[in-house]
Please model this.
Amino acid sequence: MSVKIRLRRTGAKKRPYYRFVVADSRSPRDGRFIEILGYYQPIFEPAIVSLKEEKVYQWLKKGAQPTETVRSLFRRVGLLKKWEMLKRGEDISEITLKTELVGKKKLKGKAKQKALSQKQETVSESTEEKDKSSE
Model:
């Protein structure tokens, strides 16, 4: 039996609310699950994430595989970094997980063009500096 940590959608239409659950990989998205590990509310700005850390670590230790979406959320919260440090036996007492995820602002029109031109300028400057340093 392959066990996954994934999102289970709840909430009203156009107002999603997700739960992090441990489920058999063969069960449907909103079907039967083994345990609830936390929740994710993307409709708020910033998005809210709440996790039961110890239970997540227990399931990861048992071999549960997070889905890509859950893995990216764990990475943004800081849980994956903490898990890697825990596996290596390092001190994790200083690290705290984020509870709010700030999304990237979507730029439109002139602001988008300005950001792209600035990015291109910085890339060209860095390549010029590399060329000078290699000579």
Notes: Helices lie at 53-62, 68-77, 79-88, 109-134. Residues 105-135 form one domain. The chain has a mean pLDDT of 82. The chain has two domains: 3-101, 105-135.
